[in-house]
């Protein structure tokens, strides 16, 4: 786990590479490395957080013995032992235990297409000195980020957006389309970024670079085919989940676990206890609040005691939150309306000496835990029945319901009926009209019209469609991105066993009515160790008392947002969205 960066082509200096390395150091405080082509035609940097293969044989950048291939890699390859054995049978010899040298040997042996053999989370760059060809690749669901900018002179890339602007001299032009899309959704959807000309490599994609040529292709897609399943879905799910948790516990340093009061993190803890055994030490971390409606710390503590963990709880006050806000904003790479919880709990875990944590993120998307799974089909049925109201709704004054789901609903009735446009009613922040007005205020110009087309191909079952939207929009663009940025800001590796390509591909073979049975019934049955006080409680979601805090200690952060906005920002999350946007623009020095 680490931060990576570099360039293919161009005329970047050794000093720039060193500055790039320093700018990524917070992601990897355990070591650093730099490789530069003798002609200066390519350069790679690495900041290391040592998790697997702790010794010098795991240091990066890493090169093959013949000097042809050079690699920097961010992430973990959980099936590296299996791949190592395959390569050793072919005659490969390894000097250490790291997954990096296995990845390098695999790519040298089988080519870039071998990425489909990997089980893990990863973003890497590979340079072929013979062919003068560079490759970038990213894991199936985009757990690990990778940003790049390309022009006729070459390509630059890094694990975070800020280093590309600050070190590698990417032009700092604000992207109006990305601003508008952020205001619609609360995060910038890939492949765009806030910086015009800088892109996020899409999840499950490979980029091939040669002089004056850039090609991006997908290597991973979820199947949209009709599914048939024979067998016991409960035992099948149990086996798949156990395999995934076992893979995610692969580490040469102790691993902890983020524990809320919900089903998903409890399921991960129950399986972790089963895999590690009754006597193994497991550290768990949760955050509590004085505000009762937000506090789940008592429930989490009861669950931790039930599974015999070394439990850590931080009962946060508004004063604690105020002290954390500066660091949180400083760590923000792109604007987001979320992530403060990850920042706080990650800092707590790192201060306790933990370098790796597991999270229950992804359980709702896979097993149908969100309200969107029932609401979106109803919204589409309402749109079909009330489409004649579209023109009327399009002329209603939005001031009647600004900041509410009703405003997004009336906007939805007046536009194209797609799954994505219905999804905006559930997950959106501003209406399209509001987002356009705000974008014009911030950027001085308006972006192109919004595209509401659905991703294709779409599955046949409505619940599978919603699952795909949750996985590819909300989870990928916000939850996973925030998890990476705010955990790595503390030098902490966050692992997500539910967001595992092998697991999801296997579970995706289950028909939707089985996999997404009410109240995540399949997950509860498959992990029978989940206590009743967890499985039978109403779903709440992990929330911070932002509104109360924003109206008190955080008020100064929001004042500018309210002053510049041409639309009402009555809801706290709308104020926060604009404030985070303005902060990011200033931080990146965009114009």
Write the layout of secondary structure elements.
Layout: E1 2-9, H1 14-23, E2 31-36, E3 42-48, E4 62-63, E5 69-77, H2 80-89, H3 99-110, E6 120-128, E7 133-138, E8 147-151, E9 154-158, H4 161-166, H5 176-185, E10 199-200, E11 205-210, E12 213-218, H6 233-248, E13 255-258, H7 263-276, E14 283-289, H8 297-307, E15 310-316, H9 318-331, H10 340-351, E16 356-358, H11 363-367, H12 372-385, H13 390-394, H14 405-413, H15 419-427, H16 432-443, H17 462-488, E17 493-495, H18 501-507, H19 512-515, H20 521-526, H21 532-535, H22 546-550, H23 555-564, H24 572-588
Parallel strand pairs: 13-14, 13-16, 14-15, 16-17
Antiparallel strand pairs: 1-3, 1-9, 2-3, 4-5, 5-6, 6-7, 7-11, 8-9, 8-10, 11-12
What overall geometry do the principal axes of the alpha carbons give? globular
How many strands, what sense, and barrel or not for the largest sheet? 6 strands, antiparallel
Structural class: alpha+beta
Q: Please give the CATH class of the largest domain.
A: Alpha Beta
Q: Can you give the helix content as a percent range? A: 40-55%
Strand order of the largest sheet: 2-3-1-9-8-10
Number of helical stretches of at least 4 residues: 24
Mean pLDDT: 90
**Unreliably modeled segments:** none
Secondary-structure arrangement, i.e. CATH architecture of the largest domain: 4-Layer Sandwich
Radius of gyration from the alpha-carbon trace, in angstroms = 24 Å
How many DSSP E strands? 17
